[in-house]
């Protein structure tokens, strides 16, 4: 019997790389996508030497308009169908919104929202036809509240959460399991890329290993969980915030985002 295929964006590092390990260990062939080609090639070699799966690296910048269509055309022309789509690629930016880089904001929204949405739109109809498949979207615990000093990133994850919950409802009973994976601070390149490593959030909420988050995400998706928040401290934070006025939550997040001294 042929292996199923999972397409994972942002598999060159962090949570995406660990998700690639998990899916390969479950016998999935992989299509792994990111910009850093050499990391993808290393991962291809590593996974194929450990597991009886085939790994196809695709070097692509997902911030480019039309990149979802390019990827879809590439995988379709090779006759591959994708059983599970993992929209993991994403990044943030730190600082006062009025001082942020306009192009960087645009690219962030493109990767975190536009490409994620387009890939989901392109790959789900074939899953629906087969009445089998899955989508895992990387949201975050930041999706549940506004995020001063990372306003665009938090808002982008709120979109991912809302979109994913709505999609899960539309696809209920279709054979396609849809999950929004919501980690808190995780040990990856994210804090460096974002400039967040010295924030109260990352100093006080000790980041957890990306491997644990990936394994948790896979299990949650397998069980058909729609919103999967990693870890008790994160679940408690999200639960507690329900009882606070939005303004208070906003100020609380501003404090958490501040650089710790
Ligand atoms: N770490 C955390 O604390 C945390 C918490 C909650 C949610 N998340 C979310 O988890 C996801 C994975 O992040 P991570 O923490 O694992 O960070 P990471 O180690 O920096 O990984 C980000 C991945 O996204 C890829 N990526 C970024 N921009 C891209 C682009 N323009 N085109 C193609 N690929 C791109 C990167 O690949 P290349 O650089 O090779 O392109 C990399 O593989 C993100 O969506 C992030 O928002 C992270």
Strand order across the largest sheet = 3-2-1-4-5-6-9
What summary fits the major beta sheet? 7 strands, parallel
H and E string: EHEHEHEHEHEEHHEHEHH
Low-confidence stretches: none
According to CATH, the fold-level topology is Rossmann fold
Tell me the structural class: alpha/beta
CA gyration radius, whole angstroms: 18 Å
Percent strand: 15-25%
Helix-residue proportion? 40-55%
CATH class: Alpha Beta
Q: Considering the protein shown, what is the CATH homologous superfamily?
A: NAD(P)-binding Rossmann-like Domain
The separation of the N and C termini measures 57 Å
Level-2 CATH architecture: 3-Layer(aba) Sandwich
Number of domains: 1
Give me the count of strands: 9
Summed up, the helix count is 10
Bound molecules: NADP nicotinamide-adenine-dinucleotide phosphate
Q: Could you tell me the mean pLDDT?
A: 95
- From the spread of the alpha carbons, the general shape counts as globular
Protein name: SDR family oxidoreductase
Keywords: Oxidoreductase
Organism: Exiguobacterium alkaliphilum
Pfam families: adh_short
Topology:
Layout: E1 5-9, H1 14-25, E2 29-34, H2 37-50, E3 55-59, H3 67-77, E4 84-87, H4 102-130, E5 133-138, H5 151-170, E6 176-182, E7 186-187, H6 190-194, H7 200-204, E8 208-209, H8 210-222, E9 227-229, H9 232-241, H10 246-257
Helix pairs in contact: 1-8, 3-4, 4-5
The protein binds NADP nicotinamide-adenine-dinucleotide phosphate (NAP).
InterPro entries: NAD(P)-bd_dom_sf, SDR_fam
Keywords: Oxidoreductase
Protein name: SDR family oxidoreductase
């Amino acid at each position: 019997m042929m292996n199923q295929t999972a397409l994972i964006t942002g598999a060159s590092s962090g949570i995406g790389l660990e998700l690639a390990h998990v899916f390969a260990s479950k016998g999935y062939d992989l299509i792994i996508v990111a910009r850093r080609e050499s990391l993808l090639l290393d991962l291809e070699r590593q996974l194929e030497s450990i597991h009886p799966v085939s790994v196809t690296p695709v070097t692509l910048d997902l911030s480019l308009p039309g990149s979802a269509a390019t990827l879809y055309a590439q995988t379709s022309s090779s006759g591959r169908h994708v059983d599970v789509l993992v929209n993991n690629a994403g990044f943030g930016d730190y600082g006062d919104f009025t001082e942020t880089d306009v192009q960087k904001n645009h690219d962030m929204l493109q990767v975190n929202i536009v490409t994620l949405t387009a890939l989901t739109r392109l790959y789900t109809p074939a899953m629906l036809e087969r009445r089998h498949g899955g989508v895992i979207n990387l949201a975050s615990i930041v999706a549940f509240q506004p995020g001063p000093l990372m306003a665009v990133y938090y808002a982008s994850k709120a979109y991912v959460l809302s979109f994913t919950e709505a999609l899960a409802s539309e696809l209920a009973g279709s054979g396609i399991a849809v999950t929004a994976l919501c980690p808190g601070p995780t040990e990856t390149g994210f804090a460096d890329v974002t400039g967040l490593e010295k924030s109260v959030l990352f100093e006080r909420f000790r980041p957890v290993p990306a491997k644990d988050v990936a394994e948790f995400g896979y299990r949650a998706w397998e069980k058909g969980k729609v919103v999967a928040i990693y870890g008790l401290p994160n679940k408690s934070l999200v639960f507690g915030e329900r009882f606070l006025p939005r303004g208070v939550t906003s100020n609380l997040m501003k404090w958490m985002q501040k650089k710790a001294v």
